[in-house]
What we know:
Blueprint: H1 2-58, H2 61-72
Coiled coil: 27-54
Keywords: Coiled coil
Protein name: Cell division protein FtsL
Amino acid sequence: MRVFIVIILSIILSAILAQSYFFIKERNRLKTDSDNLNSRLQALLKENADLQSDIEYFSHPENLEKELKSRFNYKKPGEKMMIIVP
Length: 86
C-alpha cells in the first residue's frame, strides 16, 4: 500500500513540476514580448516627438518657405534664383 501511495505522489509531483516548467517558459516568452513591445513603444514615442517638432517648425510660413526654397528650388513670382557652384 505504501508503494502505491509513493507512486501516486510521484505522479502528482511530476505533473506539478511539468506545469511549473510550462508556466515559467510561457512567462519568459511573455516577458520577451513585453520587452520588445516596450522598446518599440519608446521608438514610436521618439518618432512622434520628432514629428510634433517638425509640425511646429513647419507651421510658421517663413520656415516652410525656407524649406521649399532649399529642397525644391522654389521661388516667388518676380524673384530671381542664383545657383552657386563650389
